[in-house]
Each structure stands twice: as structure tokens, then as C-alpha cells.
Amino acid sequence: MKKIEAIIQSYKLEPVKEALHALSIQGMTVTEVKGFGRQKGIREVYRGLEYKVDLIPKVKIEVVAADDKVDAITAAIIEQARTGRVGDGKIFIYPLAEVIRIRTGETGEAAL
Q1: pLDDT digit string (tens) for 84-104?
Q2: 3-state secondary structure the chain
């Protein structure tokens, strides 16, 4: 099993969520986050004054899936989240030692 974390632009959440539903993903966690990468923030103008926003709002999606679904999930996220511009985001994939469903005590893929 793997944990997939994707940090994407906020307005891309709905298309990514729909693509994951189409893959029969049973659950995901979505968190509003702030950060920066290569873009190093953006400059904005408010009432004639320019200022820099260092931390850009993004969305982090977390999905746990069986190893054989990881490629399809990452491909769906990339397809829906990519704009081709700086700031599209990143995907991180981690191995999981165990998953346990608290309510039933099920473990492994049965707990997903």
C-alpha cells in the first residue's frame, strides 16, 4: 500500500476529485495549506501599493491505495491539475507499513 499526497492549486480540486471518484477511490483527505516552491510567492497590488505574498494558498489531497492503483491515481491527478505553468504542484508517494480501520479492527487493504 502507498500514501499519495498531492499539493495542487485550489481551483483544480474539483476536477481532481471527480477524476479520483471515476477511479472508484473510496476516500481521501483534503486540507487547505500554504507554501511556496520555485515561484517564491507572488506580487500583488492593493490600493496602489505593491506587496509580496510569500505563502501561496494550495490544497493538499491525501489518498491511501493499493500498489496496483498508484499509477492510475497519479496519472489522473497530473492530467487534471496540470496547467503547464509554475505552481501546478507536486505529488509525493510514501510506502505504508499498515492501515487499521478503528471501528472494525480490519487491517491492510481490507481497511481501505
Answers
A1: 988 899 999 999 999 999 999
A2: CEEEEEEECHHHHHHHHHHHHHCCCCCCEEEEEEECCCCCCEEEEECCEEEEECCEEEEEEEEEECHHHHHHHHHHHHHHHCCCCCCCEEEEEEECCCCECCCCCCEHHHHC
